[in-house]
Each structure stands twice: as C-alpha cells, then as structure tokens.
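Thread: "does anyone have the structure for this chain?"

Original post by V.I.:
We have the sequence but no experimental structure in hand. Need at least a predicted one for the grant figures.
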Amino acid sequence: MFDGLQGTGIYVGAISKIPIRFSIWFFVICGLLMVQSATVINGLMFVIALTVSILIHELGHAIPAKYWKLSPSILLHGLGGLCFHQPADTDNKDLVIVLAGPLLQIFVGALMFGAVALNSIYGTTPHVAIAAFTQSFIYISIIWGLFNLLVPFYPLDGGQTMLLILRRFMKPAKARDLMLKISFTVAIPMVIGALYFGFWILGAFIAWMAWDNLNAIKDGRQLIVRGTGRAQKSAYVTGMMKDVENAFKDEDYREAVRLCHVIRAGGESILEKQQERIWEILVVANVRQSDFDEARVWHRKAPKTKFVNDAFSLIPPKLSE
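Reply from O.Q.:
Generated one for you, tokens below.
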C-alpha cells in the first residue's frame, strides 16, 4: 500500500545507520494540530511528543529488522510512521518485527508514566512545557500503541499480527482473505466514529485503507512474500533495473533513486549482483544530486568499487569526515 513512498521525504539523518525521513505531509498534519491547540506551548509540546513517540515506535520495528540485515528505513508520514525493510524469511521474524514497534512504544510510555508518578510523590512541580510534553507523550504512546497493537485493521500492527497468526492455522491465501474481510468490517465503525467526532481527515484516511483492503481481496494481492532457498531471478526486478539504468543514464538521478527504493520494497527476490548495483546507484545518484548525507548512508552497504569510490570522493571533506 505504501511501498511507493520508500525513499521519499526529507532525509534528516540516521539512528544506528537506520535512515530517517520526514514527509512534507507529516509537517502539514503537525501544523494543523498546533493550530487547533489551546495554547502555543501545548500545541508545540504535543507535536514534539507525537514525533518522538512515533519515531520510537518505528525504531521498535527497525531494530530487529536491522538485526536480521533487512535494511530498514523510517519515514514519518501523514498521521504516523512507516518502517520499510526487505522481506523476512519466516513468519516468526515478521511477527517479532511487527510486535516490537507498539510494544517498545507502550513500554517507553509506561516508563514516562512511572517517572511522572515518582516525581509527584516528591512534590516537584515541573515546568509547564515539560508537563505538557510528558502528558502528551504518555497519552500518545500508551493509547496509540495499544490501539495499533489490538485493533485488527490492516495495515496497522494489529492487522498484520492477525494475518501472521491466521497463517499458522490455514493456507496463506485463505488467511489473507479472512484477515482483509475482518479488517474491512472493523473499518466501518471506525470511519463512522471518526466522522461523528469531526475527525474528517482521519475518517477519510481509514476509508481509503479499507477500500484498498477490499481491492486486495479482489486482485489476490500478496501481502507477504517469502524467498525460499537461493534467490531466483525475478522478471519484475529485472525490468525495473532496466528502468533504473535508463533513468541514471538520462541523468534523472531522483527517479533512479526512487525506482531503487521501489524495487527494495517490492517483496520480489533480488539477486546479489542486482542488490549490489542498487547500492551503487543509490550512492552515485545521491552524490550527483548533492544529497551527500544520503550517499553516506548507502555507502556503508555498497561494494567499494571504483564507480562508487570515485563518486564518494567528490563529497566535500567536511561532509565526508
């Protein structure tokens, strides 16, 4: 559903070599939330708490994905966040990755709640900004974490967890269809509730995802793709790589980078040579469009060929050190 968003947004840095990006729509939503707040301080602290909490959630997904060398990256987008990574090779690994996000978010929220409770025992009065931040952070982390974890709506973590559990008891195609039907049914009261309370954007967003779930049933879309044994050549990846090479040759570096991320998120088997070429393109194309921080991220993965080293040497010394 969101694979085309991988590699988009504004790159802001990396945490433990996990690239972090912000979509322009995330800033738009945060701006709207600030405008609706009672005071500037409350609005600002709520937005900061929201950003930190979502980032912790996505890092929860990314940490085990990185442990299994699945090349995770994070995008804060719209009303939440997305963690992209290459497909895991077992349902058990996928389940760990899915559950780690909301569980880490809830755990950190609970720690903050404990710290606030302990502080109240000693009678310390926090600054109004700190109080606004902690209150918002606890509310967002625990309430949203539990909602995301327990509601069986795809692609929320609850929906993904339900799919992985159903696959243990029935054939994958039947599990997918059952999960998507439950997800679509659950979406109906959520949309009605969002519209009733005036959350028009949220209601429209849920309705759009529910409609996509319905289409996934009709077109038999695979939600989980596994590789078995040695990777086989994929016609899809081979064709996409030709598009990447053509875009790179035409010096359309932004498009070349975008297509590389689409391939990585597509769930198809990628041969080792194809993967190495993707890393090379991501380094060189980002250098040529002066996105040096991004080039440094992919340089850690790319083979140290002359093609890569020559491009990387063009980064100004103060940025490459």
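V.I.: this helps a lot. The chain has two domains: 3-150, 235-320.
O.Q.: and Residues 257 and 304 are 19 Å apart (CA to CA).
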